[in-house]
Every structure is written in C-alpha cells, then in structure tokens.
Amino acid sequence: MKTAGIYIHIPFCKSKCIYCDFYSVTGQNERIEYFVNALIHEIEICSNKITDWTFDTIFIGGGTPSLFNAHQVEKIIEALNNRYDLSSIIEFTIEANPGEAPKEKLKDFYSLGINRLSIGVQSFQSSLLQFLSRIHSKEDVFKTFQSARDAGFENINCDLIYNIPEQSLDDWLDDLNTLAIINPEHISAYSLTVEQDTKLFALVQNKTVKMPADELHQQFNAITYSTLQKNNYAQYEISNYSKPNRECLHNLHYWKNNFYLGFGPSAHSYDGKRRWNNFSDLEEYITLLENGKSPVETFDEITEIEKINEIIGFGLRMTKGFEISRIPLHLKTQFQKQLRQAKIKFPKMIIEKNNRIKLTQEGMNFADAIAVEMTLV
Ligand SMILES: C[S@@+](CC[C@H](N)C(=O)[O-])C[C@H]1O[C@@H](n2cnc3c(N)ncnc32)[C@H](O)[C@@H]1O
Ligand code: SF4
Question: pLDDT tens, 111-145?
Fold first, then answer.
C-alpha cells in the first residue's frame, strides 16, 4: 500500500461566501467544543478499523480552521497521535482566512508541528472581494502572509479565484503579479464555478449575474499559465502551481488515487475499493457520535471500471498525466478505442509518450470533456 493522507473538516465560518458549497455553518461557535469532542470520538472509532495504513500528510481544511484556538487544534492532533502512527508525516497543512489568523495563533499552530499554511486570498481587487462576499481586504492578506512567515512557515499556499463576473484580464494579471511578489511556495488558481445551492447559483439563474464567456475563460487560463511560469511557478495540476518540490503532497493523494481518511461532517474517505462519506450536518454528526454511532452516511463499493475512470479523470488534470500501465490488460482494447476517438475529437491535445497519457496546455482547457470521451463503460 502507498502512503495515505488524513483530512479533518472544520465546518465553521464567520460568514458564508456566495460561491461556496463546502459544508460549513455560521454563527454557531458555541458548538465548537461539542464538535471537537465528537471529532475525537470519530478518530477513535475509526482507528479500530484502520490499523495498517501509513500516513504522510494531514490537512485541516474547512470551513475556517483558523477560527479554532491552538488548544482546540492541539486536542485534535493529540487524538490522532494517540490512535495513529504519525511518525511519517512530512506535510501538515492548515487553512487560514486572511484577517482571521493573528501571528500568535499562527506561532502556536507552527509549534504544534503544522508546517504548511494555506491562505484563502481569492483576489486583491476590493470590488471583486466584495462581489465574492469575502470579509477581508487586500491589506489583511499582506498582514496574514507576513505573520505566517514570522511564525516560521516556510511552506505557504495562497488560493486565488479567477473567471469572476466583471473581472478584467488586467485585474487577473495584477492579482497574479501581486501574489508573485509576496512569493508563496504554492499557488492554487481556481476558476470560479457556479455550484448548486449557492447564492451565486441563484444570481446566475435569475440573470442578475452573468458568468464570463468561454473564450474569456480560456484567456484567463492562458494568462495564469504564462504569468506564473514567468515567476518560476510550475503547473503540476490544472489549478495548481508550485516552486520546485513544493507540490501539495496531500492533494496529490487525491489525484493519484491513493488512500485517504476524512474526519468531520461531509468528509470523504477512500481505501482503494470503497469510498465513504460522512453526513453533511453538524448536529447530526455530533448526535450520532455522542450516541456511539458512526457518522458515515454513504458507503460505496468502487468497481474496477469506476476506479480506472477516476485514474483517467484525475490523471488528465495533472501535467504528468497518468501511466498507461495502470489500465488492466483486459480493458486495454476498449481504452485504446476510446483514446483514438478522443484524439480525433480533440486533435493535437493528447500526448502519448513514455507509457503515459497527458494533455497539452491547450488540452488542459478541455480536460473534463476529454476525460468524458475517454471514459470506459
Ligand atoms: C472551501 S475553501 C476553505 C478555505 C477558507 N475558508 C477560505 O475561504 O479561504 C477552499 C478554497 O476553495 C476555493 N473555492 C471554494 N468554492 C469555490 C468555487 N465555487 N469556485 C472556485 N473556487 C472555490 C476557494 O479558493 C477557497 O480558498
Ligand atoms: S470559501 Fe471559505 S470562508 Fe467562504 S464559506 Fe467557503 S469555507 Fe467558508
């Protein structure tokens, strides 16, 4: 078995952003202590079933983990440490929102062994931050970033969002260049997606807001690639760029179909054969665990074909692509047929070389459509 990742979902936010469909609640900080106790219980229950995995990454995400104080985070780490062998952990990330992570707190996080910080910058343009309903300013980003450096973090990621309604190409270029100046080790540049059950979805549906046209989207993609490359950030996944050897090892677990264990409401887990998801409801999660019950809502066996389709789908999103040898012998004929079809439909966008399939830079614009074309049935 390859090494695996641990994900902890912290489902609390100060306010809900219009575009976000990650599970989180607002105005319920008085439930944090109950949640932490439930989480510790889940970590304990699960450790009876998962006994022989080796973990090398931990990711505390959300929601807004930086709302937690160091003592709450310490309790979670202690629970993990009591039940799992954490001696092989090489990357330990926590997410922080700009303006919500003071230097003292970041110092405490760092002293707990957390060695990577992921800051949700999103944009440096005040009008776009406002549109996205973010509650931080450009200055908050600079301050939080400097606090993180002062606290000792040498591995920092910053998330940016582009393809925002009313965003110009110059706005985006300015965001990329501004971020490159503060020089984080890793940049995630996400294209804004309209998720169901968000305020943004309703605004697009009732035509109050219009998303940028596909053509503009592709121009945004091109600017992202060229500007970040100029600043020594190499793309390794559609939305992810890093300085040498600073790729996010935790996210690579997801993209390479490695195992991972998720704790907290809405968290997912995967053991190569099965995938299971927790309830996306804080009160249900707490109540189930208080009564000694499992918080797992769905449990799916993954068929061989589903697994291969995931290897293809995630693989095409990575610049290195995927190894053809991961396709089992009895599916090779069907795979070659799909590949031929995909090459006809998307000419000069698919590269087959050294036993790998990968996409060209232009092909990356159509990664999802190409994956659909290559899907095995
Ligand atoms: C779930 S958030 C958690 C991090 C933190 N709470 C924050 O907002 O900064 C992780 C990242 O997902 C990205 N994200 C969330 N919803 C998105 C959407 N609809 N489109 C593009 N990116 C999105 C944002 O860049 C965000 O930083
Ligand atoms: S983007 Fe971050 S802060 Fe905004 S609602 Fe989602 S998790 Fe919370």
Answer: 999 999 999 999 999 999 999 999 999 999 999 99
Across-strand partners of 26? 13
Average pLDDT over residues 196-207: 98
CB distance 157 to 122 below 8 Å: no
Spell out the residues 6+ positions from residue 117 whose beta carbon is closer than 8 angstroms to its own: 93, 94, 95, 96, 106, 109, 148, 153, 155, 156, 157
Residue labelled with tokens 């929601």: 63
Helix 304-317 to helix 367-374 angle (10° resolution) is 150
pLDDT digits (tens, 9 = 90+) for 291-310: 999 999 999 999 999 999 99
Cα 229 to ligand 2 centroid, rounded to whole Å = 28
Q: How far is the CA of 225 from the centre of ligand 1 (A)?
A: 20
Place of tokens 């300015």: 174
Joined tokens for residue 72: 């709450």
Cα separation of 240 and 157, whole Å?
10
Is-contact 85 58, C-beta < 8 A?
no
Q: Which residues contact 294 (CB under 8 A, 6 or more apart)?
A: 45, 288
Q: Report the candidate in 223, 212, 209, 105 with the shortest Cα–Cα distance to residue 174.
A: 223
Q: What angle do CA 12, 296, 37 make, to 5 degrees?
A: 50
The residues, ordered by sequence, that sit 6+ positions from 23 with a Cβ below 8 Å of its Cβ are 9, 11, 63, 265, 266, 280
Structure tokens at 117: 């910080």
Predicted local distance difference test score (pLDDT) of residue 59: 98
Which ligand places an atom closest to the C-alpha of 11? 2
Tokens read off for 119: 């800051």
d(CA 197, CA 181): 36
* Nearest alpha-carbon partner for 186 in 160, 163, 152: 160
Q: What would the two tokens of residue 239 be? A: 């939305």
63 pocket-lining for ligand 2 (C-beta < 6 Å): yes
Find tokens 């390859």 and name the residue.
2
Domains and CATH numbers, the chain: 4-255 (3.20.20.70), 304-374 (no CATH)
Distance CA(376)–CA(292), nearest Å, equals 41
- Residue located nearest, by CA, to atom 4 of ligand 2: 17
Tens digits of residue pLDDT in 94-105? 999 999 999 999
